[in-house]
Amino acid sequence: MRQFKLAIAVVAAAALVGCGTSAPTRPKTTRNTMRTMNSQLPGMPMPGQGQMPAPGADQGRGGQLLERVRQELAHVTGFDAEILARTQGNYKQGKKVDELRKVTIGYKVVWMKPTKFRAEVFNSPDPLMEGAGLVTTDGVNVTARAKGLLSFIPIKAKANDPKLANARNHTFDKYGPNAQIQRLTGQGATWTVLSESVAPNGAPMAFVAVDNVQRLDREITREVFGIEIQSLVMRSLTAFAGETKVTDYTFQKFRWNPKVSAETFKM
């Protein structure tokens, strides 16, 4: 039973859903992570501190940026990234709980259009989840493994399994890369440039509000992401419930068109 519960937790962690330990243990944070977390808008608070569209918010420029991203997505093969994810909510494995769960976890991902995906945990408050991995090739069926003694036990599940939902009850089929891209860049979506800043590597970037899209849950009222203006490299994606930041993804590394092999999506 302990092995089964651990494996389920590993699936959840590797699926980036934060079903791991929600204790206030501070995970390892690299210098680059802190630079990304602390990059600030000139004269404006960071997304997550109650930021609202500034008087100079520019929906025209946002529309141009959205069109460039759509054109880029038509040609790229996929991306790989290292992501620090923070999530808070009142769900655990699909069931509502009284505890407000705050989960922080780091993972490496590779996504190839349209649905091939691999994730590996590299930063977790629970040492048992370090190195846990998950793979799907169709976006529906997922396979996960723990690392170490339990690595010989593969766990298979559906992407919409509520046991794999995050602290906000978002299931993997809703927030996996393909689903997120379709949602945030689809027909009808509107982008508004809130302000500009500088990425840790010195590149100009913009913080953009995304509207007229289906939110991942009914409490979410706003979504803002950071993107490098020239390279279209993703830097962050943040969702708010009112003034509260409820999900926050910081892209410590991001690269379009990664090199993959036949082994990449095997678990």
Radius of gyration: 18 Å
Strand content: 35-45%
Helix content: 10-25%
- Major sheet, described briefly? 11 strands, antiparallel
Topology:
Elements: H1 2-14, H2 31-38, H3 59-75, E1 78-92, E2 95-112, E3 116-123, E4 133-136, E5 141-145, E6 155-158, H4 172-175, H5 177-185, E7 190-198, E8 204-211, E9 222-228, E10 234-241, E11 244-256
Antiparallel strand pairs: 1-2, 1-11, 2-3, 3-4, 4-5, 5-6, 7-8, 8-9, 9-10, 10-11
Describe the structure using short key phrases:
267 residues, alpha+beta, eleven-stranded antiparallel sheet, 19% helix, 37% strand
Structure commentary:
With 267 residues, the chain is of the alpha+beta class. Helices cover 19% and strands 37% of the residues. It has an eleven-stranded antiparallel sheet with strand order 6-5-4-3-2-1-11-10-9-8-7. The two termini are 23 Å apart. 39% of the residues are buried. The N terminus is likely disordered.
Describe this structure in a few short sentences:
By secondary structure, the chain is an alpha+beta fold.
